[in-house]
Automatic annotation (TrEMBL):
This protein's UniProt keywords: Membrane, Transmembrane, Transmembrane helix
Name the record gives this protein: Uncharacterized protein
Membrane-spanning segments: 247-270, 282-299, 305-325, 337-357, 363-386, 393-415, 427-447, 454-470, 498-518, 667-687, 699-716, 728-748, 760-781, 802-823
Presence of the UniProt keyword Zinc in the record: no
Organism, as annotated: Nonomuraea helvata
């Protein structure tokens, strides 16, 4: 009986597998989406020209006048904010086409009918006069005015005006390309062109023999062939010898930052981490996988290898590492397995519905194949598990087998659709995201030393957000048929699923550093741990890395991060903050000890104030005879005796961690700093991004100052100073130097006005001062609050001297607000940087 049952179990399993194979083989290739046929009307001029008498065509005369001038403020009004760079030239090119026609020319009637206008204006002008291209980045789309007709008994003249806006560097040349008309038959046999260069000088002519040539005007005739003209700015001189710097500060700083970051990352792991074999194996595996990321740059046809490595091999490596490092196996049970496969069935049903709607398989075949697959798999599971005798277990295994079979059928049909190139567009990103999710699941498990269901759910959600926002996933065309569409961009980098996965790894690496600070910061000893300090500095350096520039790899322009000087300055200032003179601190181990230390410190402060008051009042009272020297000496000796009992060392109760862990203090400081920084988001703008990674990167300026605040709270006993406000002033100096270093190259730019530079400095100084002084005041209140004492005992709100620091913060905040309210476009561009498009039309 046992053999018969086993035979039935294996037979049903083969039936389920056979049904999947049969459905896959029977699946038909899905026809791709129909390319919409062009509905544009035929060029009316071409049709009219074909009907015209040849003698009428020879009578037409075309004249073009091109004027190059400086763009005015009115011309730049439609340009998006932040796109204009005042350090460059904004050029306006005005093209005026004139076509003179005989009274009976059929083109006049076609022009008056205006078929397709204004959409066909470009088509009409390019057909008659040829397209004129101006090299250089466009500030705004090309604009065309409505044609103007001028008719008299001798004929009709049509005038077309085209305006182009360009932005070029002050030393760049400007090239005008006059293309040949694209009409067949030719509408105009010859053209006359006049160029008025304005503030430019004609440098090169290609295919042009001028009829008239003057400094302010060049005229020439051209036939049905392309020509070009290159202009040079009047105020720019060309050096005989191009001097090249043998030493590049940008390259040197980039190499220095990279080396420093690598060193701090290595030190942040600690010697013990490197001594464990699983960790070394992980590093070797990642080092072998890293070069494969360059394959798409040099051999695009082999990009599939990179996808397999990043979304299959690296997740498998991460899971293997987590399995070896963690002391326990994952606590998953059958309920977790059923929920996971159930979600897989939901996704699989979507694929099956897609297969039915688009004709990959008919509805009858899908129903029959799916039913046979699921029932046979469930029957096989029952046959295998019937010996267990536990009905609930048998039922669960049967449900799990049926769900797995449905998921396997959907996966097989999806793989069948892949070679034909027609499949649900976002299904690939979904599969890649689920594969990539294994990396954060393993990473969080290693960081927290346990497997948790919440971490799995969070990692899957984050993985989906790395590949796109919900609005992108739920787009109406995402689950129909693949259609050609542009990938979103960040700068000049196309956000393909591969690029998003790599950027997600960088974001995950940063989060792992933060998790390491959390794990280390649960003990007070972390303050003096070199590993913790290296981790904190690495976090600051990563936050202050600014991307920019590019490099050439295999004739491909590859955008790379230009490691900014701010990253180096952040390293130096953080080291300066933590490397100050250390006081002999008595760290309280509990809130009660902290309370006693604060009360003792308050008592000592009271004695010092009393002694100072005794000397101040004693001079007058001894001189007037109200107090004898014996009384004075008696009171002084009593105060000194009381001070001797408290010790002559400076009180340090306000320089301790207040009985809290470094992580607890750091989170509180980060939260307060973030709240104080948020109002300044009005100046910098709210972050944007096509996915989670680009959004976080675009919004990192919101957490750079709070990161300094986190350092302040985390390493509070080590920060320079003995009191919250003195420590806050040292923090202000460090943060201000770091923040201003990012604007050094801009502030020395001669083309930016002094007033704009003062505004930028005022905004940065105001923000840093408000955040740091506000954090110092909060920390002073917090220390007293934890000790159960009123804040007024250390800061008298009725004293002008006591209110000096908050008054300074308020004044600077008001000044910052005023500067922001009048900040012009130049200040916005300096603070926000050049705006780049991060989304693309679908």
């Amino acid at each position: 009986m046992g053999r018969l049952r086993m035979a039935m179990a294996f037979g049903l399993a083969l039936v389920s597998l056979g049904a999947i194979v049969w459905c896959t083989v029977a699946a038909r290739p899905v026809a791709g989406p129909e390319v919409p046929k062009s509905t544009a009307a035929p060029n009316p001029w071409v049709a009219a020209a074909a009907r015209a008498d040849p003698r009428v065509g020879w009578a037409r005369k075309a004249a073009t006048e091109v004027t190059v001038s400086r763009a005015t403020e009115a011309d730049l009004d439609p340009v998006p904010e932040g796109r204009i760079d005042p350090r460059q030239r904004q050029v306006k090119v005005t093209v005026v086409h004139r076509l003179t026609m005989a009274p009976k020319d059929p083109l006049i009637g076609a022009l008056r009918q205006g078929t397709g206008f204004p959409g066909t204006l470009q088509q009409v002008t390019d057909a008659a006069f040829g397209a004129i291209k101006v090299e250089g980045p466009g500030l705004a789309p090309t604009t065309r005015l409505a044609p103007i007709l001028d008719t008299d008994p001798s004929g009709t003249t049509a005038r077309f005006t085209v305006t182009l806006l360009r932005q070029v560097k002050r030393s760049d040349l400007l090239t005008l390309d006059f293309n040949a008309p694209n009409a067949t038959p030719v509408i105009v046999t010859s053209r006359s062109i006049a160029v008025l260069p304005g503030e430019w000088t004609v440098l090169r002519l290609a295919g042009i023999t001028p009829d008239r040539e003057h400094e302010e005007r060049v005229e020439f005739g051209v036939g049905t062939y392309p020509v070009s003209m290159t202009l040079a700015p009047d105020s720019f001189g060309f050096a005989d010898v191009a001097l090249e710097d043998d030493f590049s500060w940008a390259t040197a700083l980039g190499v220095l930052t990279a080396l420093a970051l690598v060193i701090f990352l290595a030190r942040s792991l600690g010697r013990g981490w490197w001594e464990r074999p699983p960790n070394r194996e992980l590093v070797v595996g990642l080092a072998l996988a890293a070069p494969t990321l360059l394959i798409p740059l040099v051999a695009e046809d082999w990009s599939a290898v990179t996808y397999v490595v990043l979304f299959v091999a690296v997740p498998a490596l991460a899971l293997r590492h987590a399995g070896r490092v963690l002391p326990t196996s994952p606590p998953w049970n059958t309920r977790d397995l059923l929920v996971t496969t159930g979600l897989g069935v939901v996704v699989g049903l979507g694929m099956l519905v897609w297969s039915w709607l688009h004709g990959q398989l008919s509805g009858q075949v899908l129903l029959a194949g799916g039913a046979v697959t699921a029932l046979a798999a469930a029957g096989s599971a029952v046959a295998f598990s019937v010996d267990l005798g536990v009905r609930s277990v048998i039922v669960r295994l049967a449900v799990w087998a049926a769900e797995a079979a449905i998921g396997a059928l959907a996966l097989a049909l999806w793989l069948r659709a892949l070679p034909t190139g027609v499949y649900p567009p976002d299904s690939v990103r979904l599969v890649l995201a689920l594969g990539w999710a294994m990396i954060p699941i393993a990473a969080i498990a290693v960081a927290t030393r346990q497997w948790t269901r919440g971490a799995v759910v969070g990692a899957v959600i984050v993985s989906l957000l790395v590949q796109g926002w919900p609005t992108e996933w739920l787009d109406s065309g995402s689950w129909s048929l693949a259609v050609p569409r542009s990938e979103p961009m960040i700068g000049s980098l196309h956000l393909t699923p591969l690029v998003r996965g790599v950027l997600g790894l960088l974001l995950l690496g940063f989060l792992m550093l933060v998790l390491r600070l959390w794990r280390l910061g649960r003990q007070l000893s972390a303050i003096d741990n070199p590993v913790t300090e290296s981790t904190m500095i690495a976090v600051l350096m990563v936050l202050y890395i600014t991307p920019g520039g590019s490099t050439t790899l295999a004739d491909i322009d590859v955008p790379l991060p230009l490691l900014a000087i701010t990253s180096i300055v952040a390293w130096a200032t953080a080291r300066w903050l933590l490397a100050g003179p250390r006081l002999a601190l008595t760290e309280p181990s509990s809130q009660e000890e902290h309370r006693q230390l604060v009360r003792t410190a308050l008592h000592k402060r009271l004695l010092l104030v009393a002694e100072q008051e005794l000397y101040r009042v004693g001079r007058g009272r001894i001189g007037s005879g109200e107090m004898s020297m014996a009384d004075f000496d008696q009171r002084r000796d009593a105060l000194e005796e009381a001070l001797r009992r408290h010790g002559r060392h400076p009180e340090t109760a306000f320089a301790t961690a207040a009985g809290c862990t470094p992580w607890f203090n750091g989170v509180h400081a980060f939260t307060v700093s973030l709240l104080l920084s948020l109002p300044f988001a009005v100046v910098y703008g709210w972050p944007e991004g096509a996915d989670l990674t680009s959004f976080v990167f675009d919004g990192r300026y919101l957490i750079t100052l709070p990161a300094f605040g986190f350092l302040f709270g985390y390493f509070y006993p080590r920060v320079r100073g003995t009191q919250p406000m003195t420590k806050a002033l040292h923090l202000t100096a460090a943060a201000l130097l770091t923040e201003l270093s990012g604007y050094l190259s801009t502030l020395v730019e001669p083309d930016i006005g002094v007033f704009d530079k003062v505004q930028v400095v005022g905004i940065v100084v105001g923000q840093v001062t408000v955040v740091c002084i506000g954090l110092g005041l909060f920390w002073e209140w917090r220390i007293m609050h934890l000790a159960g004492e009123p804040w007024a005992r250390v800061r008298n709100l009725r004293s002008i001297r006591s209110l000096a620091a908050p008054t300074l913060a308020i004044v600077l905040a008001a000044g910052t607000t005023a500067a922001t309210s009048v900040a012009g476009q130049t200040v916005d561009r300096i603070l926000k940087g050049d705006q780049v498009t991060t989304t693309a039309p679908r």
